[in-house]
Design goal:
Elements: H1 3-20, H2 31-49, H3 57-93
């Protein structure tokens, strides 16, 4: 049941990152929260499957820290890739 905490925290981190990381217009509003929630729950599930229990501090640190790292790296990277793709497409269409 504690996996829900990892889901909520990951979603909250993703929502915060959506509003703090630039280029919001190049992605949907749900991308950040969804990525954060999936990463938090995925790390939690993977670590519990390896045998860590909810009383282990490393489980909490990893499942709450992973969304912070992944979302803060992924959103700017996706914005950069989207801008480059859009520019290439404009050049192909002859409108840039």
């Amino acid at each position: 049941m504690q996996i829900v905490l990892a889901l909520i925290f990951g979603g909250a981190v993703g929502a915060l990152a959506h509003f703090t990381v630039g280029a919001r217009d190049s992605r949907g509003a749900a991308l950040g929260p969804m990525v954060g929630a999936v990463v938090g729950a995925g790390v939690w599930a993977a670590l519990t499957w390896t045998g860590l229990e909810a009383t282990n501090a490393w489980l909490w640190i990893a499942s709450l820290g992973a969304p912070i790292v992944v979302v803060s790296v992924l959103l700017p990277l996706l914005a950069k890739l989207r801008a480059a793709h859009d520019q290439r497409r404009r050049e192909q269409l002859g409108i840039a």
